Amino acid sequence: MIPYVIKADKLTKQFGDFVATNQISFEVSKGEIFGFLGANGAGKTTAMRMLCGLLTPTSGAATVAGFDVYKQTEQIKRNIGYMSQKFSLYEDLTVLENIRFYGGIYGLPARELKAESESLLEKLGLQEQSKKLVGSLPLGWKQKLSFSVAILHRPQVVFLDEPTGGVDPVVRRQFWDLIYDAAENGITIFVTTHYMDEAEYCNRVSIMVDGCIEALDTPGGLKTQFKAATMDEVFYQLARGAKRQAD
Amino acid sequence: MKQFIIFIRKEFKHVFRDRKTLLMLFGLPIVQIVLFGFALTNEINNSKMVVLDYARDKGSQELIAKLESSRYFEIEKNLLSDKQLEAAFREGKIKTAVIFPPNFYHDLMHTNKTQLQVIADGTDPNTATTLVNYIQTITAQYQQQVMGQTKLPYRIVPELRMLYNPELKGAYNYVPGVMALVLMLVCVMMTSISIVREKELGTMEILLVSPFKPLLVILSKAVPYLIVSLVNLAVILLLSVFALGLPVNGSVVLLVSVSTLYIITALSMGLLISTTTASQQTAMLLSLMGMLLPTMLFAGFMFPIENMPLPLQVISNIVPAKWYYIIVKRVMIKGLGFASVWKEVTILFVMTMLLLGISLKKFKIRLA
């Protein structure tokens, strides 16, 4: 049996009468790129926050990196990386300082951190800019740096919340190269996105509507199932039935 | 612990990279002390005065000399007629005029009574009153000097003494006030802004997902501003001792400890503001309106609280600056020890605990 890195079983979160996520179940295996799709307000963020150990579920069960989301949030936090749609490095710190800071709060030893940050700068071709303030870099570089910083501590899973919002197609492509690279190194990728071409890059895709997972398969499988030519059409067919207003 | 130090180092970088804020942080107390100390003082020195002397005798000369030798007045010129007098006031340079009638000294010696006219520019009533009082006092001193030669059967001579502040220096009043104000400003505004900035940037999310404890995030935000505030405190105290000649009469240790407590009060207030706001602008406005204004109004160094209507007096009790101000005045100027300020310290301590409790609770709720 393949050990699953993320396993959710009827995971539910209720805020008063409002059921944000309703009994969602899925598994993600090691090194998989898992696309987590849904319209705004469908419950993606809530699900993601529960898996990151920021929210306690109302009912159901889930493990991330083998740790329980109810009791072992500390261990979960140590074993995941996270990058949000908002750009999340400090603009008034240099590239190197940002890397050192994030590596530092994950408790990477100084020597390892030094080696890691050097190889990271080399990989991104940022050696020359390492002493520059992050604020002066172009957005594309910032996003790539953000992602690299999020996997600096070699997490088992990295959660990407609409990571490519506002970047041009070329940089998006380069960004996905980084994602593939990470997946090949055994890091599981859990990504939300609104770009359907990006959904095609995922190994498997789930689509949430009104708090429930309505479809879960490979992009190819979904297209066959819904007799659609593109992921766009698949998404539209499902999201059209949504009752919740996007906020 | 290592992570904590890394985080604090990062916070210091934020503080030192932002030159404008840095300038404000350290420039503000200096500017305030200098402003209050030399420009906005309510003591009057070298006020311009004119003299119209119709007497030109021993008495008028002696009194003029006395007025001139006091540091309050500077005699601009001796006038010759009433007309010049009006013109001088209209120009606005002079604040007071003293007119001696003919036979000033002769009348004083022989009829035991003489008159002296004092005219003051009433457009600024406070200054005018003060100046007239000075002139009356100097005149009274001269009168005693003259009368000392003749014998009067009954005399009451009040011996005046201003306790703790014999020279009636304004600095005794505003240095503690500036301390209360600056520390409040730096701590409340800076902490609330720096926490809200992380929220705005989205870095707070990353920090919350990391294994770094949320409580430590808050603590590491507070530490740099605690240190900056203590530096400010030292600067203010040094300035007041060496530039204004205002000694610290009480225990410095007690003063610093109480100030630290007050800084923590302000820090927890900044934290409270940061938990209720989402943007840096709102945080700044709230700090300014919510903290700066009440501190200025109710601390007691600008407007005496005893003169306020009762409801305002009651409100002033919940302003931490008021208690801090009272403590600093007692310790710094009167040189009193802990025994005489324990009540105020306790009030401040309870306030701090309350604020800290509420803000930490709110911070946790927001996380959930």
Structure characterization notes:
The complex is a heterodimer of chains A (247) and B (368). Chain A contains 9 helices and 10 strands. Chain A has one domain: Rossmann fold. In chain A, helix 3 packs across helix 4. The longest helix of chain A is centred in the last third of the chain and has 16 residues. In chain A, the strands form 2 sheets. Chain A has a 6-stranded mixed β-sheet with strand order 6-7-8-3-9-10, sandwiched between helices. In chain A, strands 2-1-4-5 form a 4-stranded antiparallel β-sheet, with helices on one face. Chain A is α/β, with parallel strands linked by helices. Chain B is an alpha/beta fold and 368 residues long. Chain B has 2 domains: 238 residues, no CATH class; 101 residues, abc type-2 transporter like fold (3-Layer(aba) Sandwich), CATH 3.40.1710.10. In chain B, strands 2-1-3-4 form a 4-stranded mixed β-sheet, sandwiched between helices. In chain B, strand 1, helix 3 and strand 2 form a beta-alpha-beta unit. Chain B starts with a helix and ends with a helix. The mean pLDDT of chain B is 85. Classes of the chains: A alpha/beta (247), B alpha/beta (368). Chains A and B meet through helix 2, strand 6 and helix 3 of A and helix 1 and helix 8 of B.
Briefly summarize what is shown.
By secondary structure, chain A is α/β, with parallel strands linked by helices.
CATH architecture of chain A: 3-Layer(aba) Sandwich
CATH superfamily of chain A: P-loop containing nucleotide triphosphate hydrolases
Question: Helix and strand string of chain B, N-terminal first?
Answer: HHEHEHEHEHHHHHHHHH
Question: Average pLDDT of chain A, to the nearest integer?
Answer: 88
Radius of gyration of chain A: 18 Å
Main beta-sheet annotation of chain A: 6 strands, mixed
Assign the structural class of chain B, choosing from mainly alpha, mainly beta, alpha/beta, alpha+beta, or little secondary structure. Answer: alpha/beta
Helix content of chain B: 55-70%
> What is the name of the CATH topology of chain A?
Rossmann fold
Number of helices of chain B: 14
Low-confidence stretches of chain A: none
Gyration radius over CA of chain B = 28 Å
